[in-house]
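In this supplementary section we document a worked example of the pipeline. Step one takes a protein sequence of length 150 as its only input; no multiple sequence alignment statistics are reported here. Step two produces a three-dimensional model, which step three serialises into structure tokens for compact storage. The input and output of this example are shown verbatim.
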Amino acid sequence: MDVREIRLGQEFESQLRKALVKSKVLLAIVTPRYLASSFTARERSVFEERSRVTGKRVFLPVLLRRSGSLPDPLSRLQMMDFTKLPLLTTTQRRRTSDWAHAIMNAARVLKDMIEDAPPYDPGFNTSLRDPAPDVGDLSIMPGHLPKNLQ
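The serialised model returned by step three reads:
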């Protein structure tokens, strides 16, 4: 949650709409809880639509924890997959190094996406409708991530 833009006690949906229009990209940390949320599904659909309309990558999903199969359209997206990073199976030093490397790669991809994002458009439709079952062309295509994360 963006605590700088959406203050505690404020009406959430209208504030989310305003924040979405100002945001250049969406970094989604995908977990079972993220997938179960109707708000994040709507948020995703706004960025998928923006990507479709502008032809720019504006949605970066990072798979942190998996629980079963991913729903469409997420199942068709190229994601950064952090599920294979060591948690307890290796030494502390190795875990830290693997996580640091993956996070730095994600930061580089995110930086490139922000620099290439479409300009701010206050007229962009940010209706928080239920996501469409098929949004067409999606935002992150294979080949846009570092080879070690594809």
